[in-house]
Amino acid sequence: MTLQIAVLASGTGSNVSAILDASEEGRLDARVRIILSNKSDAPVLEKARKRDIPVWSRSHRDFVSREEFDKAMLTVIRNAGADTVVLAGYTLLLSSMFIQAFPGRILNIHPSLLPSFPGVRGGGDALAYGARITGVTVHFVDEVMDNGPVIIQAAAPINSSDTLENLMPRIHSLEYRIYPQALQWLAQDRLRISGRRVTLLPDKRPHASSASQGQSLLGPWLVSPSLETF
Ligand code: GRF
Questions:
Q1: In Å, how far are 104, 184, 215 from 229, measured between CA atoms?
Q2: How many CA atoms lie within 13 A of 141 on its CB side?
Q3: Between the CA of residue 37 and those of 13, 77, 105, 175, 214, what are the distances in Å?
Q4: What CATH number matches the domain at 1-102, 3.40.50.170, 3.40.50.620, 3.40.50.300, 3.40.718.10?
Q5: ∠ CA(50), CA(55), CA(56), 5° rounding?
Q6: How much is the mean pLDDT over the chain?
Q7: Which atom of ligand 1 is nearest to the CA of 44?
Q8: In whole angstroms, what is the distance from residue 151 CA to residue 140 CA?
Q9: Same fold for the pair 1-102 and 109-182+215-230
Q10: What would the pLDDT profile of 48-97 be if each residue is shown by its tens digit?
Q11: Could you give the residue numbers annotated as active site?
């Protein structure tokens, strides 16, 4: 079923662009109904306006509490007709009340192989630590930061000569593939959560690409589960 997406974002919005591209090109069965930001100068808002996506932007500091801020967002999201919340570089933690309003329908992308390097600088922290493999994780959101059940991960090597400037574009290019893919699986109702584990059900449609035909290796990168359409 077509996902009706509300995006929460605080930054540049390159993942939002990848999701919008995938949906416009028919690879992702989703419609982005609204983009919400806690930062009125976030570049993602300009990207949204250029593509005629409605935006909502308020600072949480204008509300008496974070719960009140989240309540305001909930109202906006419901009025927009969204049933799925996509976090794409959203810098605030969500309240329990918000998370409970969308059970199994809030996803996040994080630029490391969780549970390693949670937090706001996942990519930089992996590099600074000296890790030789890092990557990207898409996961369901629970009440702990960067903690919910993992849907898909993609791994990328870190070379000894890497800097943040050349590592992050590699990380981002993985993000642009695995986030739309995870959302497409959600749209196809193929994700089942059991405790911490997420099972990807087979695609029952005729001519569906099976996981074994999908891409688990992208050059030096490993992706699990395998990509199907991205
Ligand atoms: C991405 O690296 C994502 O993994 C992290 O925040 C960044 C957002 O980038 N959660 P963008 O705003 O989508 O360009």
A1: 22, 9, 9
A2: 26
A3: 10, 12, 18, 20, 35
A4: 3.40.50.170
A5: 155
A6: 95
A7: 12
A8: 7
A9: yes
A10: 999 999 999 999 999 999 999 999 999 999 999 999 999 999 999 999 99
A11: 110
Report domain extents, the chain. Answer: 1-102, 109-182+215-230
pTM above 0.85, yes or no: yes
Pocket of ligand 1 (CB under 6 A): 9, 11-15, 44, 88-89, 109-111, 175
Interacting residues of 230 by C-beta distance below 8 A, sequence separation 6+: 22, 27, 177, 178, 180, 181, 184
| CATH, domain range 109-182+215-230 | 3.40.50.170
Q: Which of 51, 5, 45 is nearest to 28 (CA)?
A: 5
Between CA 117 and CA 135 the distance in angstroms is: 10
Query: Cis bond leading into 180, ω under 30°?
Result: no
